[in-house]
Design goal:
Elements: E1 2-3, E2 11-17, E3 26-32, E4 36-39, E5 44-46, E6 50-55, E7 60-64, H1 72-75, E8 80-81
Antiparallel strand pairs: 1-8, 2-3, 2-6, 3-4, 4-5, 6-7
């Protein structure tokens, strides 16, 4: 299965990170920049260093944050494989 679409509004959980303080962090994505995800609890996640569990409604995805780096509108043009 592959992910193609918008992350804002999705629920996310950090399942792996080089920063151990982020592991287990959960929240709803309210904003996204090229390198960061902003959650509703005001926490910011650096995409480069995490493995994420993303729930965008009916589907659960495991995504490597490195594959999410870039503008969200550019991601709509490519397909990201589910880990």
């Amino acid at each position: 299965m592959s992910f193609k679409g918008e992350l804002i509004g999705s629920t996310v959980e950090v399942i792996e990170s080089s920063n151990k303080n982020l592991v287990g962090l959960k929240g709803k994505i309210i904003d996204e920049t090229k390198n960061m995800l902003v959650l509703n609890n005001k926490k910011m996640i650096d995409k480069r260093n995490v493995m994420l569990k993303v729930n965008n409604g009916n589907t659960l995805f495991l995504l490597d944050g490195k594959k999410l780096i870039g503008k969200s509108e550019d991601r709509l043009k490519k397909v990201i494989k589910n880990e």
